[in-house]
Amino acid sequence: MAVVGPHRIEWRRKFPVRAWRRLGWYATSGAGVVLVGFVLFGAEPERLESGRLNPLAFIPTGLSVLFALAATPFVLALFRRPAVAADHYALSVRPGILRTLLLPWARIAEITAYGVPVEPYLLVRCDTRAGRLGDWPRWWDQSVLRAAVRGRRRLGRPGRPVEQYHVAVRMDEFVGDPAAQLASLAAFAPHHVVVTDSLVY
Known about the structure:
The protein is α+β, with helices and mostly antiparallel strands and 201 residues long. Helix content is 33%, strand content 24%. The strands form two sheets. Strands 1-2-3-4-5 form a five-stranded antiparallel beta sheet, with helices on one face. The model has no long low-confidence stretch (mean pLDDT 88).
């Protein structure tokens, strides 16, 4: 489940099924749009009878370029995977393809496993009174947290609102069951950090 050492652990990642599924969905839908563009505008001449450039002739190429550029985050997700690691100084998390957050334990108030077993999240609540140690989660770091918020609303889950937390990581991206994953972090968390299991089994 985790790479264990005397002073540090790191969760082992599963095969990126979710990333491949999203890339496949995007490639299928995007290729369909590009194909329609070629069918509708592929025979357009580059120049009109007046000698001016025909903008319709560039639609298939433009769609192909846009499709390739928009595929970048889906491809990156195959290689820049979510990450969770901990030592006695800090919890390190990368929710998605962007930056890795270094969150010192002194700035963390709570960690919890939240959701249902088929879609569990690790939620982290920071202590806003703990100064400016480490990184602070920004809007672009919270895409997974927003997904957890949507899931809570969809399921009508009671209890503490997910909006009170600052960052989330999908636990099903890693090897092991959520309870064991949470326990591996709890072993490094200092006493002031509240560790809770809010999963619905």
